[in-house]
Amino acid sequence: MIYLDDFSKQELEYEMNALGEKPFRGRQLYKWMYSKGVFDFHEMTDLSRQLRQKLEEQYGFRNIGVIEKKQSKKDGSTKLLLELEDKNRIETVILKDGERLTGCVSTQVGCRMGCSFCSTAKIGLIRNLKIGEIVRQIIIMNKILSEKDEKLSNIVFMGMGEPLDNLENLNEAIRIILDESGLNFSHRKVTVSTCGMTDELNKMYEELDSPVNLAVSLNFTDNEMRQKYMPVSKKYPVKSLIATLKNLPVQKRKRITIEYVMLKDINDTQKDAKYLAEMLRGMPVKINLIVYNDSDIGFDSAAEKNVLAFQKVLQDKGFSAFIRKSLGSDIEGACGQLYARYNKKTYK
Ligand code: SF4
Q1: How remote is the CA of residue 236 from the centroid of ligand 1, in Å?
Q2: In a shared domain, residues 11 and 116
Q3: 246-261: per-residue pLDDT in tens?
Q4: CATH number reported for the structural domain that contains residue 94 in this entry
Q5: What CA–CA distances, in Å, run from 126 to 157, 218, 292?
Q6: If you measure from the C-alpha of residue 225 to the centroid of ligand 1, how many angstroms do you get, rounded to a whole number?
Q7: Model pTM?
Q8: 41 Ramachandran zone, left/alpha/beta (phi>0; psi -120 to 50)
Q9: Ligand 1 atom showing the smallest separation from residue 108 Cα
Q10: Pairing of strands 154-157, 190-194
């Protein structure tokens, strides 16, 4: 079976051409999938009956089912457990913050980056998600929200996986998300979050026409310390990461978000805050201090007084520093919690 949702827009045109059809048939298919959210040839009424039959004989779409839906009693965020065609499972979360509805999208089944404070890291990388599997998460979230006349306002690639470790499919998914005849989101509403794969970061900005927002999960200023908790720093040391951030085209228009997960007795002192301020001096960034969700993997959340003192040091140095609310924490849909439970159930 050839899955049409594995293809980019251009590849769909080539595929239709190879089938003896006009390339615009590829654009029609693309529109049905990504503008209308239709993944059934029978419903594609502007294609002739013969063509629909021909397509059905040779092609299909990846099946993605919603296995479980959990809503947070605390803040109304919703976590979805999705089952893919090959029975692998991923999670995707609708984060609700007042009027703002943000879709937190996964890019991989598992992750190979090995950040020691992250639940997803515990299962390692199972596989990359395909283009359509990334975009479909947004379509599924919007279908659910449409029942209440709502839709996603923002997209963040902060779900399972390191987005830049699946760069080719990520970029193609972003093109579909931004495309007027696709999902039609503004590039201002889309954020990619990375643990700091600098080569891939440069490549992403080289390849994308519209620069999306960037969030970097920094968490440590000392490279030795960062290597201990975030192995990505062995290949991409903190210094080279910061140098890369200073040169990215994203800076011309937008501020980079620096994510800093506050871990008790590890990176939560005022001294750490001063090092962070020093490292980011002169850079147009905003800093999100993330209160870690206590987990059973050996890390605890920093004490509130330490988080506030940390924030004050940064603010006194002139930085915009926010303490980020942990949305969806009671449904294990918050930062670092994705797939914790289903991993245990499915893979152990
Ligand atoms: S924090 Fe992100 S990059 Fe690190 S292991 Fe978890 S999912 Fe991967």
Answers
A1: 15
A2: no
A3: 988 765 557 999 999 9
A4: 3.20.20.70
A5: 18, 24, 25
A6: 16
A7: 0.93
A8: alpha
A9: 7
A10: parallel
